[in-house]
Please model this.
Amino acid sequence: MGSKKFKTISSYKVSPSVSLEVEIIGEGFPILCLHGHPGNKSCMSVFTDALSKKYKTITPDLRGYGNSKFEQEYLIEDHLMDLISLLDMLEIHRCLLLGWSLGGIIALELAYQQPERFTGIILVATAARPRSNHPQVNLWDLINTGIAGVLNWCNPSWQWNIEVFAKRSLFQYLLSQHNRFAYQRLAKEGIQAFFQTSRFAHSALNDALKTGYNSLDQLTSINCPCLILSGSDDRHITSDSSRETAEKIPNSQWKCYDNTAHLFPWEIPDLVLEDIESWLNTAHKL
Model:
């Protein structure tokens, strides 16, 4: 029988007003795993369940997300202070970064601030200059999304619901393959994450996007190896903007998965994990 993986969920007071709930699984070289928006630490289990077999995965609910409650206005930059404080508290001086969507943007910002601390970066569906080609949302999009979400929560991956409502809802821009595994993840993790995301988290992200967030000029300062993964049909952060990021990082590999969208780790998890583990074994030298 294999040994049982070490796992804890604890709260860390990273500042006088902020406590982050953090899941730590496994032992070995640490990976700080950062979720997207709306999201929480559970959404990262598609990565951490596998990676924690060889690594120590550290996955917080970011400020204003999940169980890291924070009912005040804040800036996206405040996540950086929270996470640096968390790493200091855990006495982690060197680690990998893995960020999905917003988590990838935060990962890049951490690497700009403390390049000596991070030995490699895995960016998933994200970019230093995130660009979207998402169509304008209308009332029927919202109605169909609400119906599809409730039905999928009650009866995960019900094919009738997928065909009748989900493919006519905002889910059509998050998924391309609409497979059972992805809808099971939506039911198990996505719905809860959506309702646990505070209005202040929405506001912080929207304010950053309105200013035209762009950190392309800082990418040449990243010297550690990077793996950048994208979905060909991603409407939220396009594959072109992901490739643009990869082209400006000196030591990077970029891969785009056909017929996948923003939630591609839930569409093709086995292939994504295979590529991540292969990169860790070859490009990331401890």
Summary: The chain has two domains: 7-135+198-282, 139-190. The longest strand covers residues 7-15. The two ends are 29 Å apart (CA to CA).
